[in-house]
Design goal:
The chain has helices at about 30-40, 60-65; strands at about 5, 10-15, 75, 85, 90-95. The protein has two helices and five strands, in the order E-E-H-H-E-E-E. With about 100 residues, the chain is an alpha+beta fold. The chain folds into two domains: about 1-25 and about 70-95, no CATH class; about 30-65, no CATH class.
């Protein structure tokens, strides 16, 4: 089974499921760790927590709202047959080690 790696989120997946159906990858929202890196890099400013009057922590922020990736990949197709969002693209990836179950 050929695996591909999403160059936007780093996800590794097979474009064809074991039952032969196609898999359409969509990048997940930022995790708390990724959001913390974005905040540290000056790309995102977190809102002020009304209770503490301090900026929210990344963990609290992702629990309260979704932070989408700027170059999110969405392989679902529009009515014209094109991808909804190409993101940064994909590259071939190594197959997982024997015994590793890949869940899309």
């Amino acid at each position: 089974m050929d695996m591909v790696k999403c160059l936007t989120c780093g996800g590794v997946y097979s474009p064809v499921l074991p039952d032969g159906l196609p898999y359409f990858h969509v990048c997940p929202p930022l995790s708390a760790v990724e959001l913390a890196a974005a905040v540290a890099g000056g790309k995102v400013a977190l809102p002020i927590d009304p209770v503490t009057l301090l900026p929210e922590t990344p963990a609290v922020a992702v629990a309260r709202r979704t932070y989408e990736r700027a170059t999110k990949r969405d392989e679902n197709v529009k009515p014209d047959g094109t991808l909804k969002a190409a993101g940064t693209g994909t590259a071939p990836a190594a197959a997982p080690a024997p015994g590793v179950v890949v869940v899309p």
